[in-house]
Fold SH3 domain-binding glutamic acid-rich-like protein 3.
Amino acid sequence: KILDGEKHYCKKSELKQRQSEILQFLDAKKIKYSALDIAGSGDLKEEMRKKVGDPSAMPPQVFNGDKYCGDYQKFSDAMEDGNPEAFFKL
């Protein structure tokens, strides 16, 4: 995650909280999803970064099928704007 040009890495608890917020929204809206745990797989992490187009991207990253939706910050911004459906490309 890059903020103001500086790299910031989330603590594990912060990462889990961010993932939880996204999954809670999907559950509340009854939207089907599959969550991938990339923590133990360098191959999955590299695939995620390649799809995102950022070699330093950190989870969670959200996709709707093959469409890249964004990271947690974009999800959070969409929630604040009252338009999360647009973020998920629904």
Remarks:
- The first helix runs from residue 12 to 28.
- The first strand starts at residue 2 and ends at 3.
